[in-house]
Specification:
It catalyses: a (3S)-3-hydroxyacyl-CoA + NAD(+) = a 3-oxoacyl-CoA + NADH + H(+). Its EC number is 4.2.1.17. Keywords: Fatty acid metabolism, Lipid degradation, Lipid metabolism, Lyase, Multifunctional enzyme, NAD, Oxidoreductase. About 5% of the residues have low confidence. The strands form 5 sheets. The protein has an 8-stranded mixed β-sheet with strand order 15-14-13-16-17-18-19-20, with helices on both faces. A 6-stranded mixed β-sheet has the order 1-2-3-5-7-10, sandwiched between helices. By secondary structure, the protein is an alpha/beta fold. The chain is built from 29 helices and 22 strands. A hairpin with a 2-residue loop joins strand 21 and strand 22.
Length: about 750
């Protein structure tokens, strides 16, 4: 009969076994796809360590996961949400410190055998072990992503990682929250060895025995920065905040080793950090502060600072919003995009792409390289087909340069993609993704051509950003298999895929396209049909309002800065140059025809287009460009705008509010009209597709934070001042009358 303690260990998914004098502690939490860290798991693990310590036959310990492709994914976020006060969170953090301190000082060697994701609390756990081995699987990554949730590592990570690999590398990982692959983890010194998957346990047992016998010595400069394992035989990410600190900042790595140099280092780091985050993300500032405390005052002081900061951050609005986004995207990963959860996607073995332009080439990359299926690209001429292949080659070359792929691997992936000027190779295609010019007649022609050469079950997906999918389906013999798959540029970098269904789209078609999007690494939302769908529709009034401000005499730089200070990654005028001023001009009439005068763009920009200023692609828009890089505003562009060079100094906060509220109000209209299926999808779509500030949680979380009544008052104020384009969405008025927020049941 199992003891009470054995029952606790089993509940937490921990088991204990001894092999040739090495205790193997396996974590495999029952009923969960991944292992997570909680106080109960930590306590159960400590109890098993004590058992190993008491057993005279046990000379060393191996810590391993029983999951197929996961080690420990991090702390249990659901558990953190149950805590009520900062003091409770601090206590949890201090408890983790005590448990991992005991692990670090354990009398027998402990080897961590890592396969799969080892993130957050999982990495903090293994940092306290004495030797770390990771498999060479693409599933294996390590990292401390807490800042992406508005938090910092709370189980000693802010202290152990800098001690192990140095402040420079540790800050880069902690402030960005990015993951690193096994080879990079070894190079940094986070792990000691990278091994093939099938050999993980055997090598871990061997290394544990060698450590216990003293035949394996581990030498670590920086207490681990350049770890060298010596024995009989030697073995050899967006996160959102990438590029926070420039490499130049760390040119003098020795600065961190003396007090004066350290002060310079951290002062410069904070300045660079604030320039990037504009003070909107407190977790990054806290991480910098806590790491500095540890380096200057010792680990004990650093751990205390970490616990206090961790407790404070859990209850910040920023963390709440970022955690909500995390839960939203996690939920989307489990959905098939339809109301019927039993609908299964069909297998897509081959993808056809129509159009070899910027979007077509990007789609070919995510399908052929990330999804990993054969792709056939068709363009109208050899030059277009060649451009598509060249674009894929360019992205692969970047990956080779970053050493995330070898030349051989890149060539193998490129061979998955072929291109031509006819429909040869399309007969066996399961999914066609069309990325041709935005013209309904042309798209109807393409649909007819495709249906003549493909099988009866082939799906036709359009990458259109504005034309209604229902109108496209009218040109098809199989309208139930017509759907929208709206990618964002650049396709290989932008995380969102917006799938658009018309009333006749078959559920299996939707489920199949959602599955394809996930395999391409995208966060997928499904929206209903309508002009502009969701993202293009809410972007239109946002951009229009920026244009109205230009027409009123706003300075271009000040206007862009106002929206960046609000939290957008780039200002609206910079974005207009990126998208292409001519593209925006073509979309404008479509939106105005669908929604009337409130969506009408000001005429002020017509002179800019007629002057040949199309944006970055012509090296001249509102800004000037050199070798593809943005320079300064072209002063001559003001001569093409009302007021000429006589710019007005408009209030920055009002400019930002006018532009942002246009997007928020239109998002509410989309929800009220049934374009959106939920406020959650609207928040995810705006953040991942359009760069709506993540710390605000999306348009609907932002509306709830402002308060619907307050938002209504603001819109009515601007409506009185500027007219019908600020008319509040009917659903907003309903919510105010009902006294409810958008995320309330």
């Amino acid at each position: 009969m199992a003891t009470k303690q054995e029952a606790v260990e089993a509940k937490q998914g921990l088991s204990y076994d001894v092999t040739n004098g090495v205790a193997v502690i396996t974590v495999d939490q029952p009923g969960a796809p991944v292992n997570t860290l909680s106080p109960e798991v930590g306590t159960a693990f400590t109890t098993l360590l004590q058992q190993a310590e008491r057993d005279p036959e046990v000379k060393a310990v191996v810590f391993i996961s029983g999951k197929k492709d996961n080690f420990v994914a991090g702390a249990n976020i659901d558990f953190l949400q149950t805590l009520k006060t900062p003091a409770e969170v601090e206590a949890i953090s201090r408890g983790a410190h005590e448990q991992f301190d005991r692990l670090e000082s354990f009398s027998k060697p402990v080897v961590a055998a890592i396969h799969g994701a080892c993130l957050g609390g999982g990495l903090e756990w293994v940092l306290a072990c004495h030797y770390r081995i990771v498999t060479d699987s693409p599933k294996s990554v390590v990292g401390l992503p807490e800042t992406q949730l508005g938090l910092i590592p709370g189980a000693g990570g802010t202290q152990r990682l800098p001690a192990l690999i140095g402040a420079q590398a540790a800050l880069d990982l902690i402030l960005t929250g990015k993951n690193v692959k096994p080879s990079k983890a070894k190079k940094l010194g986070i792990v000691d060895e990278v091994v093939p998957v099938p050999m993980l346990k055997d090598i871990a047992l061997k290394r544990a025995a060698e450590l216990a016998a003293g035949t394996l010595k581990v030498e670590r400069a920086h207490q681990g920065f350049k770890a060298v394992a010596q024995s009989g035989k030697k073995k050899g990410l967006a996160g959102l905040f990438q590029g926070l600190l420039s490499k130049d900042l760390w040119a003098e790595a020795a600065l961190e080793d003396n007090p004066v140099g350290r002060k310079v280092l951290f002062d410069q780091a904070k300045k660079a950090l604030l320039k990037k985050t504009r003070g909107k993300y407190p977790a990054q500032e806290k991480a910098l502060q806590v790491i500095r405390v540890g380096l200057e005052s010792g680990r004990k002081a650093g751990l205390e600072a970490e616990a206090k900061a961790f407790g404070e951050l859990v209850f910040t609005d920023v963390s709440r919003r970022l955690v909500e986004i995390f839960f939203a995207t996690t939920a989307l990963k489990k959905e098939n995009g339809t109301a019927n959860a039993s609908v299964k996607p069909r297998e897509v073995k081959k993808v056809g792409v129509l159009g070899g332009g910027l979007m077509g080439g990007g789609i070919a990359y995510v399908a052929g390289v990330l999804q990993g299926v054969p792709v056939r690209v068709k363009d109208r001429d050899d030059a277009g087909a060649g451009r598509a292949l060249k674009q894929v080659q360019t992205v692969l070359d970047e990956r080779v340069k970053r050493r995330s792929l070898t030349h051989r691997e890149a060539n193998a992936k490129l061979s998955n993609i072929t291109a031509g000027t006819d429909y040869s190779g399309f007969k066996s295609v399961d999914l066609i993704i069309e990325a041709v010019f935005e013209d309904l007649k042309l798209k109807h022609q393409v649909i007819a051509e495709v249906e003549a050469v493909t099988g009866e079950n082939t799906i036709f997906a359009s990458n259109t950003s504005s034309l209604p999918i229902g109108e496209l389906a009218k040109g098809s013999k199989r309208p139930s298999q017509v759907i929208g798959m709206h990618y964002f540029s650049p396709v290989h970098k932008m995380p969102l895929l917006e799938i658009i269904t018309h009333p006749g789209t078959a559920e299996w078609v939707t489920a199949t396209c959602v599955d394809v999007g996930k395999k391409q690494g995208k966060t997928v939302i499904v929206v209903n049909d309508g002009p502009g769908f969701y993202t293009s529709r809410i972007l239109a009034p946002y951009m229009n309002e920026a244009a109205y401000l230009l027409a009123e005499g706003a300075d271009i730089v000040q206007l862009d800065k106002a929206l960046v200070d609000f939290g957008f990654p780039v200002g609206p005028i910079t974005l207009l140059d990126e998208v292409g001023i001519d593209v925006a001009q073509k979309v404008g009439p479509i939106m105005e025809a669908a929604f009337g005068k409130r969506m009408a763009a000001p005429k002020a920009l017509e002179g800019v287009v007629s002057d040949g200023r199309l944006g970055r692609k012509t090296n001249k828009g509102f800004y000037l460009y050199e070798n593809g890089k943005k320079k300064e505003v072209d002063p001559q562009v003001y001569l093409l705008l009302p007021h000429g060079k006589d710019r007005k100094s408009l209030d920055a906060s009002e400019m930002a509010e006018r532009v942002a509220l246009q997007m928020v109000n239109e998002a509410i209209r989309c929800l009220g009209e049934g374009i959106l299926r939920s406020p959650r999808d609207g928040d995810v779509g705006a953040i991942f597709g359009l760069g709506f500030p993540p710390f605000l949680g999306g348009p609907f979380r932002y509306a709830d934070a402002l308060g619907p009544a307050n938002l209504l008052r603001k819109l009515e104020h601007y409506q009185d001042k500027y007219g019908e384009r600020f008319t509040p969405a009917p659903l907003l008025v309903e919510k105010v009358r009902a006294g409810k927020g958008f995320h309330e049941a």
